Each structure stands twice: as structure tokens, then as C-alpha cells.
Amino acid sequence: QVQLVESGGGLVQPGGSLRLSCAASGFTFSMYAMSWYRQAPGKKRELVATITNASGSTNYADSMKGRFTISRDNAKKMVYLQMNSLNPEDTAVYYCSTLRLGVTYWGQGTQVTVSS
Questions:
Q1: Which of 59, 82, 85, 109 has its CA 20 to 30 A from that of 9?
Q2: In whole angstroms, what is the distance from residue 52 CA to residue 40 CA?
């Protein structure tokens, strides 16, 4: 079965950086686009970034452009989110996700807290 397991979250000071990782299993990873979403307390889940399967083209939400970088390693079945210049508004649970055969799969999420 499809499994997505995030890691790398934690507490970071404003202006700091974190790198999130997502380990995928149970499907042919290289064939599917992968995305990161986030959900802050009391807010809807929002798309952070997406990376396509073959070409590795990327798309970002406007507020993340220039600060976040999504990447993937098809050999390791991993997707990453490098987050720089973090601010308190980036505090949220971050989720790895993929859409496969009409079904959206989610990981359990990893908490990112930006605070001094």
C-alpha cells in the first residue's frame, strides 16, 4: 500500500532553515508528481510546492517562491522541501502528498514551528 512518511520538522528561529524529507513506498515513485502541503492552526490546508515525475519541473505557492525548494530523488524514493528564511507565518504541519489513480494520499505530517 502507498505510504508517505515525513520527517525533519522541528522548532526553528525566524530567519532559519529546515529541510523536510518524505519517504515514499508502495507505488512506482518515479511515475508520479509529488507535492508538499501545509496546514496552520485554524486554517485550511494549502499547497506549498509540486514537482513533476519525469522532468522534475516545479511549482510553488507565491508566498514560498524564492524561499522554498522542492526536489526529489527517484532512486531513493524521496522528496524534499528545503525551507529558508522561515518566519512565524510558516508555522504549520507539513504534509507530503501524491495523487495516484484518482486517489490522494497523505503522510502523517511533520510539525514546523518558527518562533524565537
A1: 59
A2: 25
Element housing 49 (H / E): strand 46-51
Per DSSP, the three-state class of 12 is strand
Q: Are 46 and 26 in contact (CB under 8 A)?
A: no
Q: How do residues 67-111 score in pLDDT, each as one tens digit?
A: 999 999 999 999 999 999 999 999 999 999 999 999 999 999 999
- C-alpha span between 70 and 85 (Å, rounded): 15
Residues in the chain: 116
Question: How many Å apart are CA 51 and CA 57, to the nearest integer?
Answer: 6
Cell 511549482 found at: 59
The DSSP element (H or E) to which 100 belongs, if any, is strand 92-100
Distance, in Å, from the CA atom of 75 to the CA atom of 79, rounded to the nearest integer, reads 11
